[in-house]
Amino acid sequence: MRIVAVTDLHGRAGKAREFVEELKGFDFDLLLIGGDITHFGGREQAERLLTILEELGKPILAVMGNCDGRDVLELFEEKGINIHDKRVEFKGLGIVGFGGSNITPFSTIWEFDDGHIRDSVERNYREGDILLIHAPPYGTKVDKTYTGVHVGSKALKHFIEEKQPPLVICGHIHEARGVDEIGKTLIVNPGPLSRGHYAIIDVGDRISIELR
């Protein structure tokens, strides 16, 4: 299965259009949106961006980011694409989602304490599932800010260490685009689509990741 993963669009409709034009005719199965489709915007902004992304004609699954308005989650629910605090199966692949972020100093719209994140992921996860989580795991290449501080979720890190899901897709920290590993788990932060970045992920007997 081929997945295209995007995150952190932050309302950039022009970048969404460039992304769609670049991927038209590209063969893939599923588009995953890892949060912050808006920049502190609501459903109107989110719907405008989703309309562009839907031109690819591919199934979409999404979680909200910490900078998405409260009604963005409602829109995702109405469109049947929301997987925040849920587990879904797509062509036999289990996908567990959790949006928002762990607590930040900035009091953004969607923030959860680590216990909430851990409880949700543990409740929904089944062995072999992949995770779509806006917040990255703590202490990795993909949660490190420009200042060198790690700001990810410690609960998510501990969950990964214990359960070893094959793949975690995250975002949130724009400057931490990259791929890392915790044990056998591959972790990818595609980088912000607001800067033109995304990831192509092939999931099969092995997982391969291409950052673009």
UniProtKB/TrEMBL annotation:
The record's InterPro entries line, in alphabetical order, gives: Calcineurin-like_PHP, Metallo-depent_PP-like, PAE1087_MPP
Every Calcineurin-like phosphoesterase domain range: 1-175
According to the UniProt entry, its GO molecular function terms are: hydrolase activity
Know the name of this protein? Answer: Calcineurin-like phosphoesterase domain-containing protein
Which species is the source of this protein? Answer: Palaeococcus pacificus DY20341
Q: Name one Pfam family in it.
A: Metallophos
**SUPFAM superfamilies associated with the record:** Metallo-dependent phosphatases
Top-rank taxon: Archaea
The beginning of the lineage is:
Archaea, Methanobacteriati, Methanobacteriota, Thermococci, Thermococcales
